[in-house]
Amino acid sequence: MMAALFAARGGARVALVERNEKLGKKLYITGKGRCNLTNAAEMEEFQRSIFRNPRFMYASFAQLDNRGVMALIESQGVPLKVERGNRVFPQSDKSSDVIAALRRALEKDGVSVRLNARVEALLIEDGRCAGARLEGGETIRADAVILATGGLSYPSTGATGDGHRLARDTGHAVTATLPALVPIETVESWPGTLSGLSLKNVRLSAYAAGAKREKRVFSEMGEMLFTHFGISGPLALTLSSVLPEDLSGVRFEIDLKPALDEQTLDARLLRDFKAMSRKQLITVMDGLAPHSLAEQLIKLSGLSPALPVNGVTAQQRAALLKTIKAVPLRPRSLRGFNEAIVTRGGVSVKDINPSTMQSKRVEGMYFAGELIDVDAATGGFNLQIAFSTGALAGKSAAGA
Q1: How many Å apart are CA 27 and CA 37, to the nearest integer?
Q2: Which pTM does this prediction carry?
Q3: 3-class DSSP state for residue 41?
Q4: Which regions of the chain are under pLDDT 50?
């Protein structure tokens, strides 16, 4: 939609070919239906929030940054608000309002929208993209074509890899695609006993085995959630995007009390043990964590919940302390594209001119959005990447 809009504003006659029955199906479900359309962070922080190929985005952000997106949506009569983490939402909390705003802008600028139309192949003539052939045989001829089909996440919205296929068919490299910003399945089954339990202000860290020594690949504070299959929530989703493809040598640690160093936490344990010396260990631990988690921490430490506090040895207390500061977990796999917020990987940025979004292999062919090998943290950053690359591709294609 953004590519079509900027192409039309650049003076081109534009046809937007949409395989779904309506525009913006994926936009509709973003932000749990509220549409976290961008992030209000300064651009320096924005760049740091992009996991892969952040430098590729310089020209796109110069064309349309987060302030530009916010101004555009508000100019269509949709007031916005900024929430925790600089996340930007419509004040109405309705993603449908954002879609309607974009649809109004498309109508105003004369974009022709073709719904229920699936592109089967691109027309390449003398090394130039000259249009597209639709299912059913109809051809649409054009001076330029922008591929903005999304990745593979949420295939129910139409993201089934058509763009990757069309890119490969026209000679473009497509890097390995993986689910990103997705929950993680763990080897251990015990998280299932805590399913639904949310943790706040914890530190989640990940370590990967290296040739000589283990390397820390992630360590952040925030919120996470135990599920019937493992872990989810903001920390786990972000972690999923930076894990190596091979998970066999990876392990996680959850620090439940990151604000306390081991010495301070041990002093607190000693005080609690002294105050409740005749109680069972679970009673003391209930003061440190929710009951179900407290019970699990004791078991992971090799102790019994019914153990009298006055019977806990220094060695047992040290084991308990270690578990609280580093709850161990191992990843089995990432959940699938059905649950992934975005796709990791895609059309190689080496095949795209970052100043115009035009293919380096086929003249008149442009790329935008999640289809490209650029992805970022959760919080509105990925939609901004889509909007910015779309705007630059649209403007460039109009001038082609």
Answers
A1: 8
A2: 0.92
A3: coil
A4: none
